[in-house]
Design a protein that fits this description.
The chain has three helices and no strands. By secondary structure, it is an all-alpha fold.
Length: 84
């Protein structure tokens, strides 16, 4: 993995985590928290979305959408588990 790929991955993770934080809980989690939530969201989305037949496409915008959907799933599950 080149440095460019790493930078893009971190930026996509940060944007996706920030968007998911805004959608689910109403605030972000700080830069590091957003990156972690976004990257974990991308991983979750790569497991869940193909199984339900959802495909976004390619490119940076598609990666942000994909990661954001996964991050929203992650945050909703975390919120449900926190209430229990």
């Amino acid at each position: 993995m080149g440095i460019e790929s790493l930078v893009v991955m971190l930026l996509v993770g940060a944007v996706a985590g920030w968007l998911a934080g805004k959608l689910v809980s109403g605030s972000g989690f700080g830069l590091l928290g957003n990156i972690v939530v976004g990257i974990l969201g991308a991983f979750i989305a790569s497991l869940v979305l193909p199984r339900i037949g959802f495909a976004v496409g390619g490119g940076v915008v598609a990666a942000i959408i994909h990661s954001t959907l996964g991050a929203v799933i992650l945050l909703v599950i975390a919120r449900v588990l926190k209430r229990a």
